[in-house]
Design goal:
Layout (H helix, E strand, L loop, with lengths): L1 H45 L20 E4 L2 E2 L14 E2 L2 E4 L5 E3 L4 E8 L10 E6 L4 E8 L12 E2 L4 E4 L11 E7 L2 E3 L6
Antiparallel strand pairs: 1-4, 2-3, 4-11, 5-10, 6-7, 6-9, 7-8, 8-11, 11-12
Amino acid sequence: RREARRAAAKREARRAAEDLEVRRAAEDLEVRRAAEELEVRREATTGGPAAATSSGTGILQWPMGGRISQEFGCTGFPWEGSYAGCPHFHKGIDIVAPAGTPVRAAASGTIVFVGFNPHDPPGDRAWLVTIAHSGGMVTWYAHMQARRPDGVHAGGRVSAGQVIGYAGNTGRSTGVHLHWVVEIEGRPVDPRRLT
């Protein structure tokens, strides 16, 4: 009986935690939608899409300058999977710049992976670098050219601003760009909040 009560209490605690996560995701979604509406209005008044500019905490620096072609959050783009109540959710920011533009580490850390993304389907894999930072944060840099700058290897340390790759069009991509993802404890976070 005691074990059954403990198991029931654990299930109830898990459900409560999941409900809290759903509420937080819904709140984040409302904030993102409001930000997207503001961005649409800004584009309408300025005549162009957003640029890679700082607006958050300054914890991270932009890995590359350029034009933002897709923001973090809900999207109508069919290649994106569902997440946080959205049928299509973009878990990063896409930055467009000329092929070969240097991509820099957004913060100091340890390189976890360099190579073709093993999660992509064979024959359509993006060149990827992932970096682990303090506080359970990991940054992903995808679709780069399939070449490594000197000193860029799994297990290697990088400094903020160090070149870790070059803008490319590898994997499932619609053109030369960098797909930049920030995760904290495995959950995607809007990079703008940290730049």
